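Dear support,

I submitted the protein below through the web form. The confirmation email said the job was done, but the results page showed an empty box. After a refresh the structure appeared. I'm attaching both so you can tell me whether what I see now is the final result or a partial one.
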Amino acid sequence: MRMSMLAIALILGASTPAGAADPYDIQVILPLTGSGAFIGLGQQQALQLAEKIVNAEGGIDGRKVHFVIHDDETNPQVSVQIASQLIASHPPVILGPSLSANCRAVLPLMNDGPVDYCYSPAINPEAGSYVFSASIQQEGLVETMIRYFHARGWKRIALIASTDATGQEGEKGADRAVALPGLTDMSIVERVHYNPKDAIIGAQIERVRAAAPQAVLAWTTGTPVGTVFKGLAQAGYDVPVGVGSGNVIYSFMRQYAGVLPKELYFSIDIGTARGDGLRLDPAVTAAKKKYVDAFQAIGLWPDTGSGTMWDATMIVVDALRRVGPDATPAKIRDAVAHLKNYSGVYGMYDFTAVPQRGISAKNAVMVRWNAAQSSFEAVSQAGGEELIER
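What the results page shows now:
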């Protein structure tokens, strides 16, 4: 649902002391419109499923949970406006936004709370802060991709990066990865950049082609990735392409089905990967089954947009159940910060070992898009080890 500033103000102004039977509202900021809507709409649907599961299991201290969703229109300024309005009512926790630029924009507002669990992996909150970041750190995902390329013998890499925060983080991650022990024989033979709003990048594609890379790393999120796919298709340039986890969205794949590279790889979480052969902790397998079954019940397969917010949301619910619905932001922060051995769909979380995130590149897996089966099939174990050729 899309909510205006006036609607938010009315909600905040109408708040009254909660009774035991009153729903427990958790405020969420998602991109339901704009270029990030393909992520936000899926996350909205996933939150509706999560709400049903949480409430079927007793809610929080007997109170039903209700996720109140606000549309930031994929605009960081709107994210700040919404967050500022919400903070004025002193909520203990806020979920979202979903995109890195929007998370970065609201991060300074959270210095003294509330707890904010950003649904993007592309920010790096300070240890001990009130801000947590979902999924695997961006540089860990890039490293997993580079290690996979290396294992395949693709050592000459071209980089296509958008000029926004996501592209910049991806480029930094690639530079870091090729300097790691065991990967120094890899080289970035060409790097090109483009504005996320560009519709045509033919000149950049020709520069990449001239460098004769063995694979291309195209690191950005959303419709700008579609621009890369269109550029490659229009140039008739066929080369293996690796893309970040933010694009592992079924609706996105359907939208660009006509221009997808023949060999298209993603560095993602174990929760979205499909196919046989993945070795997972039994508790993670159980969590993943429960998660997948919830989507299968409505005829869908979950993708990484859903998975990113799923674990983050359930971790916050778990913390609220342990410290109580009336806990302060500091108590909620500490409950998450000390959480260990939590089995999510992305793996076993340990926030004492990986502050503000709980999981690392050890939880990343490489997948290849199988157009015939419309699935993201695993081609590696978690961490990129023991490649599974398909």
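Response: this is the final, complete result; the empty box was a page-load delay. DSSP finds twelve helices and 14 strands in the chain.
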